[in-house]
Amino acid sequence: MSHTHADTIAVRVLAVERVTPQIKHFTLAPIAGGELPAFSGGSHIIVVMRGAHRVYRNPYSLMSSPNELDNYQISVLRVDPSRGGSAFMHEQVRVGSELEIAHPVNLFGLAKLARKHLLLAGGIGITPFMAQLHDLRLGDVPYELHYATRSPEHGAYCELMSRAEPQRCRLYHDSEQRLIDIEGLLSRQALGTHVYVCGPSGMITRVLDRAHALGWPDSHVHYEKFSAPPTGEAFDAWLEKSRVAVHVLPDQSLLEAIEAAGVDAPYLCRGGVCGFCRTEVIAVDGELVHNDHFLSAEEKASGKLIMPCVSRARCTKLVLNL
Amino acid sequence: MNVALKQGDIYRGAWGFRNTPDAVRRFPLPFPEDRYMYSVNIEPHIPGPKGSVIEFPIDCDEHYVEECHERAIVLEEDPLRYQALPHMMSAQWDTLELGMQSLSQSYPQHFTLTRLGRHWHWINRPLGLDQHFTFGDPASLPRQPLEYITRQLQGDWVIMDQRDNDLWCEGGMVTGPADWSMDFDLGMSFKEWHGPVPLGHEMGVFDRALRFLLNLRLNEPVRRYNWTMTVHPRLDTSPHNYDRWGPDRGGVTMQNVADILHLRTELQGLWRLPRSNGIVFMVRTYMLSLRDVASIPKWARRVHRVLRDLHPALADYKGLARHRPIAVAYLAQFDDGTPTTPGTAPE
Amino acid sequence: MLITGIRSKPVYAPLQPDLQGRYHLMVGHGVGAAPLSRLLGDLAQAQPAALQRTRIWFVADAVASAASTEAFQAVSIAELRTFNAIDALLSDLTAAMDQALMGSRLYVAGPESFMGLVMRIADRFNLAKDEVRAEECGTLARRVHCIHCRATIDNVRTNIVQCRCDRWLVVRDHYSRRLAAYMGVMVDAECPGDRPEIKEVFL
Predict the structure, then answer these.
(1) Rounded Cα gap, residues A271 and A77, in angstroms
(2) Comparing C-alpha atoms, which of C32, C22, C55 is closest to residue C108?
(3) Are C170 and C158 in contact (CB under 8 A)?
(4) Is B246 close to C167, i.e. CB distance below 8 A?
């Protein structure tokens, strides 16, 4: 089945707020008026940014309340060095700017059967939890949010947290030597607790490792990563079905290069997690560089599959069945 | 749309069910070619030709009112044909929104939805309903949201939760099933509830279907077709009342097969739900007597060949064993061997 | 209609200790004593420190009695409890699960009908499939759910069984964890009175 992403929503930026030196908060409203699509907390939207030379498509978690659909709110961390997307958002996008967004996708939803939710946020990773807190407050299931930032100034929304839910939210600032006691937290949760972590890679890895070591089943451990696709050497690809040649720049993902060449490749999370962009490799005169978390070890070793959203190749020509 | 009719005598009793000539021609034939085997056969649920069953996302046809009455009769006798597990309330509201939005946009002459923030006003003219309520507040509706809306929709509806890389059957309104029980399957995972379907597992059909559905996106519903045959135009062929419809299977003869044996197509629609991130599954059933099938020359030849060459395991699973030979014998008279054009359009 | 070869039928495997788990609760009935003893021995050998966080709960029956529980007493664990009846174990299990922590593992051994009841409690606590292990032993007798009158018939050993609603039911392999029972459907709906020979198949 062919897949197009033509169905985006045109939005206008209603407000831009600098929350910390690196983080800007954007409020987006539909140009056509009315409401934006309803969504579940933990969802993200792909924001399509048309730059002078390139089109950027970056995922950002929705922070606003799922019950208030006049606008969407996202926060963007200015990554340095930026591949272009976050720089674009910080430097080119102002009040009144027009953008396109895709419909929300949720790969980080709250488990409906959880007996308790344990939320662990690091830095910009607070964003998906902001939306979920709205629903959690209305429900009966116990929850805790632990939010770590470098310092109070670097913590977006810390003030909001400490005002809203002092009993359920704890703040930690590296600068004050207060770190989340991951081992302690994970050791004392009741059966049926789900843990959710969103933040820097290191934090996620630590939580996944400790959870596994402490006997948590994978089904009860949820994470969302915001890493940009890894960069690498430039290489060329040939799309056999589309009969199109694609040149992949060092700081451009294979998927982005395919899109820049005018071919509509399937994608969903753009982060190597969901498996939707799985593509068959017909031939490669070199080696594949798998950066995804979806393919099995056998599939990666087979050399027959690749996830273009994050993976690359070290070669002169990669032939894809696309 | 027939508004005047006798309740209780359409899909049971005197079998008052009839398709007008328009309904016959618009029947979704489930066979695009002269043979049938399982496949994932999922396609985008985008608008189809005007007048077709896929013109609109949720189809209301000339049987709308009588089918809603039939549902009410089944529920009166067996309320457990509607269930929803407690954690699925947001999926219930999602489905209510889908149903009301769809019907009011597709058939504005029959349905009106007015929304002022969370104050909604719903008018269903064919059923004579006028309801003000607060979206999200179950106390403001006379029934649970899913029950409320599905009593006004044709077809069976199942809500699923997505978790742990799987889909789970967590509720629904199932009053016209082709031999399955939502009550029994409640709480099952995708492959568990498809457990009784032969061949599909070996073929990897369910693996592929599940993987696809896990990535189903908002605003991009999909559909597929399934089929079976039913003796008499009986919608409610559930295991629960098998003792009522089971005996009908042996009562098919060459004299009555044309009128009592019905080809039964399921148009299945699947939507990602926004607030719950679940999936709602619609099973919309269309029935056509074999006589009406035969009235369309291409369909007569096509259906004859499909039934004649059907894999025995499939025939057995679909409950066709007893009357398949009679159906094939009846349709044979219309099959002169002329090739059929691909596709399902009536000719 | 498919009777056998249905994929919803639970699949069991010999119990093995999950060394990733921190707290081990082993629950058994009757001849389930043997797999539990073996399991306990395996855990003792692989991770002796785990024994202080291991509990065994056991319901004896006519077959498995003092001899079985002796095997449990040979190893020093946190708790050994014996129950006179399954219901007593199930109700205490609910309380225990309410107090249990993440990192717990539940092991069940015994006839399938017993295990189904235990699993139903586990489901209420959102236990993941990785947190439970089950080994079937003893009688294959089934709990059957009459799809027509919704009654439950215990201890069914035959291919067809008569329900209290008088219908004769064929016992299918289609299994519901929620009901902890197999589906029984009227066997002679299409030809009333035309029933297959009764055979003991779930022994």
Answers:
(1) 17
(2) C32
(3) no
(4) no
In this complex, how many residue pairs, one in chain A and one in chain C, have their CB atoms less than 8 Å apart? Answer: 57
Strands of chain B, DSSP E: 43-44, 82-84, 111-116, 119-124, 129-134, 156-163, 166-173, 222-231, 261-272, 279-289
Nearest to A268 among B215, B276, B277 (CB): B215
Q: Rounded to a whole number, what is the distance in Å from the CA of B237 to chain C's nearest CA?
A: 12
pTM higher than the cut 0.90: yes
Peptide linkage before A81 cis (omega within 30 of 0) = yes
What tokens does B298 get?
């291409």
What ipTM did this prediction achieve? 0.93
List subunits contacting chain B, requiring 3 or more Cβ pairs under 8 Å.
Answer: A, C
Q: What is the pLDDT of residues A241-288, one digit of tens each?
A: 999 999 999 888 999 999 999 998 988 878 887 888 999 999 999 999
For residue B285, which of B154, B163, B197, B189 has the smallest C-alpha distance? B154
Residues within 8 A of A (CB atoms), B 314-343 only: none
Query: What are the phi and psi torsion angles at A90 (to 5°)?
Result: -75, -35
Q: What percent of chain B has pLDDT over 70?
A: 96
Q: Which residues contact A221 (CB under 8 A, 6 or more apart)?
A: A194, A195, A197, A207, A208, A211, A212
Instruction: Answer for the pair B190, B23: CB distance below 8 angstroms, yes or no.
Output: no
Nearest to A37 among B136, B211, B274 (CB): B274
Element (H, E) at C152: strand C152-156
Q: Is B276 on the interface with A (CB under 8 A)?
A: yes
Burial of B341 (0-12, 13-18, 19+ CB in 10 A): exposed
Tokens found for residue B340: 């059929």
Q: Do C2 and B242 touch (CB under 8 A)?
A: no
**Pick from C100, B157, B151: nearest CA to A188:** C100
